[in-house]
Amino acid sequence: MPTANLSQSAVIIGAAVPRIDGPLKTTGTARYSLDHDFPNLAHAVAVQSTIGKGRIRKLDVSAAERMPGVLLVLHHGNLENVYRTFQRAQDGSMAETRPPFEDDTIYYWGQYIAAVVAETLEQANAAAGAIRVEYDVEAPDLRPDLSEGFTGTRESSWKRGNPDQALSAAPVAIDETYVTPVETHNPMEMHGTVAVWDGDNVTLYDSSQGVVGHRTVMSEVLGVPRENVRTISRFIGSGFGGKLSPWPQATLAAAAARQLKRPVKLSVDRRMMFCNVGHRPHTQQRIQLGATHDGKLTAIRHDFFSETSLLDNFVEHCGEQTPFLYSCPNLEVTTAMARRGVGTPAPMRGPGAVPGLFALESAMDELAIKLNMDPLELRLKNDAERDEGTNKPFSSRHLKECFTTGAEKIGWKHRTPQPGSMRREGKIIGLGLGGASWGAARIPATASVELCANGRICVRCATQDIGTGTYTIFAQVIHAKTGVPLDRIDVFLGDTTLPDGPTSGGSMVTSAILPAATSAVDSAVMRLLNVATLTPGSPFYGMKTEALHVANGRVHARQEIAGVKGVALHSDDVPAAHPPADGVPFAELINLARISSITATGHTTPSWEDPKAQPYSMHSFGAHFAEVEWEPEIARLRVSRIVSVFDCGRIINQKAGANQILGAAVMGLGMTLLEEKRYEQRTGQPINGSFADYQVATCADHPDLDVTFLDYPDLLVNEYGARGIGEIGMAGVAPAITSAVYNATGVRVRQLPVRIEDLLQSTIVEV
Ligand code: MOS
Q1: DSSP3 helix / strand / coil % (the chain, rounded to 5)
Q2: What does each C-alpha distance from 399 to 390, 406, 480 come to in angstroms?
Q3: Backbone angles phi, psi at 375, to 5 degrees
Q4: Residues ≥6 apart with Cβ < 8 Å to 132
């Protein structure tokens, strides 16, 4: 239950409130899933296949079973009572739908083939190394061209007008293919599960982005009623989408614990993070754009392949933003899945949009060059006034202002389009830009608020804080409504015994919890006012509740306040007419009434059931501007600046919000210049499946970052007007950087990441 201090006088909604859970994390007090220890805890280690495709001919576990401390070796022959899940949109399913060890077939390198459980981790590791496997080996299909061997069906996802006719008639056209590689999530906290059975009930400590969905899925997998499963995930070292659904290690830990009647811990190590818990799939996207000579788009075709595994149908929806980002009468987006011998992919920060907008925005940049037009002007000229994909008006769209504000901040007017034409301090400078968008919606949520007799307020919701600031957002809302200081607000999240809350996915938690939290606290306050007027001995006894209100954590009589009319929306709105000593502390009234506490529950109704929201297309927008420095003599490229301007509705917490965009910009930089998981083509083994070899952007790589929020409330989403912010910041970074790279070097990189070999093609060889 994180708590913290903040001056109550601040206007808290929109303020840069530090994380209330920050001290718990920085002092090591926060307990992550694998920090949970129990008497008699046994340790499991998963064993991975060392081939990429084939069959297990013989699995010899006899030596392992005889080793010291070994309690159980699970495998295809003895894993009991685990089931497949039913794929449902609401409750989710296992991320890899095949239960572990279901058959003796190997679908990808690193697939779990056994799990050893022992008294200690060392004993389990040693025994895992003693398992002998014989395989019938086949060659995995890892062909790098996703169009090769394609036998599936290509689906038309969006269509309007006649794009093919418009393309052939277009005076200016672009037809290019853009490729993004496999990228891995690699959050700081790795996946892992501690499973504890108590009779027929099981508690799962799992690093999860959605405890409610996790519980439902695990109840199906284990074949036990939902009410017998409790999932706990109180602190999470991020997930980036890799923890949206449970992975097989949860099944193995729970099944082993059930079979042994002992608590079992199973941790996914960093090497396994590259095999067994998803990745952003490889994409290959052909973009065709048609335009008039003066730069009006006449046609867009976006035909893409998205890689998936042999086991599951996963699609990276690269074309989701294409129908509405720009105005264009003729358009088609088509989707195709290409099967390869890899593990099942998963959503990763900005799924679809991030690779999709790399392609679309790169093509826009190339079109601008072909038109001899400023790429900023091309964006402004083709801005969409309504969502032409769904034919609905936008609830709130300020993409143009994102572009113009960012241009102003980075000094776009000084940019010259000729590659290599800008110099500074012995380096060549390039400038580029990229647009971003991400959907918004209000998903269902329930939260409860308890006004306690000890003067504290407890908020409860079975959502979770994956590091984005959800604990703090709840506390801000309660403070805004009651004036109770943050250090007297306790927020409980990440436990399925709490009221059902949303999965931390799709950047939708903040917009989902705000209505539930505000209605819960409003109802609790209303009950408090009833108690104040109905309790004999209360100074407000016999008064009407309308005559009272709550501020500074106290109940006040309204008529005492000169000049304040009507109901104040937030306590912040109440002028300083209240010296803090005025009124009666809420806890005094609760004690006077001799009740233990006052609790109320609030719900968020989903936007798709809201007649006011239904007619609108709801999205966030943004733009990144990148500056690169190129030193051709030593082939050194650095991203020196990223200016980001975002339209994500009203920002509830400037600090947490800006941190999301900053982190996403750095992650986008890593995507552009560093990240690529490579497989050994004959075996399917990840070649760079470790942090020694797989590069991510670090502090040493990060440029000068500058984030601006336009802060226009989108009141159709919730009363504060907040939309989501977690994923959008990663969209648009890659095309901004590759456009800047072109501006500096004259080299167009269409296949990420940008390699030195690409840059060596530059004909600009000296400064
Ligand atoms: Mo996000 S990829 O829905 O965690």
Answers
A1: 25, 25, 45
A2: 18, 11, 30
A3: -60, -25
A4: 58, 59, 60, 63
Question: Which residues lie closer than 8 Å to 199 by C-beta, 6 or more apart?
Answer: none
End-to-end Cα separation, the chain, in angstroms:
57
Q: Nearest-CA neighbor of 340 among 372, 305, 371?
A: 305
Q: Which of 349, 725, 728 to mutate to test the pocket of ligand 1 (most atoms within 8 A of CB)?
A: 349
| Cα 349 to averaged position of ligand 1 atoms, centre (Å) | 5
> Is residue 389 helix, strand or coil?
coil
- pLDDT score recorded for residue 6: 43
For residue 241, the ligand 1 atom closest to its alpha carbon is 4
Q: With bands split at pLDDT 50, 70 and 90, how would you rate the model's confidence at 88?
A: low
Cα 504 to averaged position of ligand 1 atoms, centre (Å): 7
* Cα distance between residue 477 and residue 459, in whole Å: 10
Average pLDDT score over residue span 27-34: 96
Q: Structure tokens of 613? A: 């929201």
SS3 420: coil
Q: Of the residues 244, 317, 468, which should be mutated to test ligand 1's pocket, given the most ligand atoms within 8 Å of the CB?
A: 244
How far is Cα 48 from Cα 15, in angstroms, rounded to an integer? Answer: 48
**Residue 496 carries which DSSP code?**
T
Length in residues, the chain: 767
Distance CA 461, CA 233 (A): 12
| Separation of alpha carbons 284 and 305, rounded Å | 5
Catalytic residue among 307, 366, 629, 727: 727
Q: What's the alpha-carbon Rg for the chain, to the nearest Å?
A: 28
Which ligand 1 atom lies nearest to the CA of residue 350? Answer: 2
Tell me the CA–centroid distance for residue 507 and ligand 1, in Å. Answer: 7
Amino acid sitting at position 353 = A
Query: Which ligand 1 atom is nearest residue 347's CA?
Result: 2
Find all residues with CB under 8 Å of 437, minimum gap 6, and list them: 321, 324, 325, 353, 357, 399, 619, 620, 621, 622, 728, 731
Q: CA-to-CA distance for 641 and 625, rounded, in angstroms? A: 8
Which atom of ligand 1 is closest in space to residue 348's alpha carbon?
2
Ligand 1 residue neighbourhood (C-beta within 6 Å): 209, 239, 241, 244, 347-349, 351, 505-506, 727
Instruction: Return the H-helix or E-strand segment holding 253.
Output: helix 248-260
371, two tokens: 């038109």
For atom 4 of ligand 1, the residue with the nearest CA is: 241
Whole-number Å distance, alpha carbon 241 to ligand 1 midpoint, is 4
134 is catalytic: no
Tens digit of each residue's pLDDT (9 = 90 or more) over 199-249: 999 999 999 999 999 999 999 999 999 999 999 999 999 999 999 999 999
Within 8 A by CB and 6+ apart from 339, the residues are 141, 152, 307, 308, 309, 310
CA–CA gap between residue 235 and residue 241 (Å, rounded): 16
Q: Is the pLDDT of residue 20 over 70?
A: yes
Dihedral sign computed on CA atoms, order 396, 401, 406, 412: positive
d(CA 596, CA 743): 67
Residue with tokens 């358009």: 331
E strand spans, 2-69: 42-48, 54-60
Ligand 1 center to 236 CA (angstroms): 14
pLDDT digits (tens, 9 = 90+) for 493-532: 999 999 999 999 999 999 999 999 999 999 999 999 999 9
Q: What type of residue is 753?
A: P
